[in-house]
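Throughout our pipeline, every protein is held as a single compact record rather than as scattered files. The record that follows is passed on verbatim for readers who wish to inspect the format.
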Amino acid sequence: MSLLNDALRAAEERQNHTRLAGAYTGQPMAQDTGRSRAPVVLLLILVLALISGAGAWWLLSSDSEEQVVVAEIASVEPMPEIQEITETPAQPQVIVEPLPAEPATRTEPSTPDDAPTAEAAMVTETAPEQLKPADMEPAAAQNEPDVIQLAQTQPQPAAPEANTESRAPETSVKQQRETPEAVDLRTSRELERLLASGRNGEAERVLAALTTRQSAPQSREVFAREMLVLDRPGRALEWLPDSVTNEYAGLRLLKARAQLAQGDLNLALATLQARVPPVAEQVEYRITLATLLQQAGEADESAGHWSELIAHDDSQGAWWLGLAIALETGGRNRSALQAYAQAAVMPGLSASLADYARQRISVLQAES
């Protein structure tokens, strides 16, 4: 291109020189048609030759570049070894699962040519197309025994032990709830429900089934108390044997009431006096015993039990009145008068008992 520019510039200078020479002399110049056209024709021929040469050179250079590219492409065609690797199902994970990309900051070493990079790119691009599901299944089948073997070799006793440890508290709690006392309490509530609905026969069968395994004092007490309410002392005594009542004060009290209901006062007293519990544990037991002793003429013993009750709680007017009656029966009128006076002023005493106390006060004061 520089040769073409120089030729054009030289032609322009010759034309300008001719014009300037004519203008300088001032004489008109005859235009020689043959001479003026000859340089122009030569210039055009030279320009065309240069253009043709430049085009030929460009075409030749492009052909050579294409040949180089074709040669490079031919050089990176899949090699037999790579093809064999992609077709072999034994190691598909090298192609299917490539390693994660390196961080951006890492600089890879430069290579003298791009052939390895192009070769790796070609393998990566062609591997997923050449690898089919049919090729992957054998690899999975080959790897599966290893996975199964690994799972079999791993110890697995930890989970059952954890389950056993977590279930242990539940089992112990369940065993604690199923103690004889708990079973007796649950059965006594069931008996209360059956007796309240009038199913006495069914309640008695439930009680019979329970007493074959344990003493069941609470269940016996519920059933015997209901029988006394229904005025069936005989049925109540059937479930109150001496082997059980000797150990439980509440059952002895029910047994004594059943015996008293049958008219046997002495037997009832003997049952109560067999083992007398403390006042704090069985207040009702001591009240019944003191009352029966009063009826049996044992005034001093009755007064002793009333005194113990008042020492436990001196706010009960009825207990003061019982003590006063026992003392008067035993001939201790002065002490009885004080007990009557105390009972008369105690709150909670019924009107009839308060009138009786005031009446006995008037009699004892008159006698003294």
Remarks:
- Residues 18-33, 73-155, 157-166 have pLDDT under 50 and may be disordered.
- The chain has 19 helices and no strands.
